[in-house]
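TASK: fixed-backbone design
INPUT:
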C-alpha cells in the first residue's frame, strides 16, 4: 500500500507539474522515511533528490480563416442522386378539316372519311351559297316566295356530295402540353361544380390529365 505522503503527491502531482512548467521538483525523504515532493529545496536534514521536468512542446500558432481554408482539403462530393426519368407525353395528333381549315386534337389520329356537299369545298370554284346563283335558296325563307330550281350543271356539281378525310400530323410537345392544360382546366371546373355522382366520373379524368402533365 502507498504511504500517505506518496499518495498525496500522486493526487497533487498534475497541478504541481503544471505550475512548475519546467525546472526541478525535489523529492524529500525525512528521518522517518516519509517522502514528499515540492518545488522548493528540502528542509535541512531531509534527504533530497532533484527531479528535472522537461519543457512542454510549444503551442502551434493560430491560423486565420483563409489559411485554415487553404490547408483544409475540400470535402469529398457526395454521390449525386439519380435523376428521375422524364415522364413521356401521350401521343396526340393535330388534325385539319379540309372544308374550313379548322383544327382539332385527336388521341389516335384516325379520321374516317365523311361526305360533304361539293360546294362546301368551293366546287365548282365558288362557295355553295354562291353556286346556286342570285335569287337562289339562301336568299329568301321558305314560303315567302317560290324557290327557283336551277338545273344548270354548275348547281348539280355543287350540290353533289363528295368524300373527304381530315389530315393529321403528330402534335409537338408544346401543342400536347397546351391541349392537356386546356383539358385539365375544363375538367377541374366541371369537377368543382359537379354533384357527387358526376365527381366519380370526373375525378379519374382529372387524375389522368394531372399525371400526363407531369411530362410538360
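OUTPUT:
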Amino acid at each position: 500500500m502507498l504511504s500517505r505522503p506518496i499518495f498525496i503527491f500522486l493526487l497533487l502531482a498534475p497541478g504541481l507539474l503544471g505550475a512548475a512548467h519546467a525546472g526541478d521538483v525535489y523529492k524529500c525523504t525525512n528521518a522517518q522515511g516519509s517522502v514528499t515532493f515540492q518545488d522548493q529545496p528540502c528542509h535541512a536534514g531531509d534527504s533530497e533528490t532533484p527531479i528535472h521536468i522537461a519543457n512542454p512542446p510549444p503551442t502551434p500558432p493560430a491560423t486565420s480563416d483563409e489559411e485554415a481554408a487553404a490547408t483544409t482539403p475540400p470535402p469529398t462530393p457526395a454521390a449525386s442522386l439519380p435523376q428521375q426519368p422524364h415522364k413521356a407525353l401521350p401521343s396526340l395528333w393535330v388534325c385539319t378539316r379540309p372544308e374550313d381549315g379548322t383544327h382539332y386534337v385527336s388521341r389516335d389520329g384516325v379520321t374516317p372519311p365523311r361526305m360533304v356537299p361539293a360546294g362546301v369545298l368551293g366546287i365548282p370554284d365558288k362557295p355553295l351559297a354562291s353556286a346556286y346563283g342570285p335569287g337562289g335558296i339562301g336568299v329568301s325563307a321558305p314560303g315567302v316566295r317560290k324557290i327557283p330550281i336551277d338545273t344548270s350543271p354548275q348547281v348539280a356539281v355543287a350540290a353533289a356530295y363528295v368524300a373527304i378525310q381530315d389530315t393529321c400530323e403528330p402534335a409537338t410537345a408544346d401543342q400536347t402540353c397546351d391541349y392537356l392544360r386546356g383539358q385539365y382546366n375544363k375538367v377541374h371546373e366541371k369537377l368543382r361544380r359537379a354533384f357527387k355522382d358526376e365527381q366519380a366520373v370526373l375525378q379519374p379524368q382529372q387524375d389522368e390529365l394531372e399525371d400526363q402533365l407531369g411530362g410538360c
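COMMENT: The longest strand covers residues 23-29.
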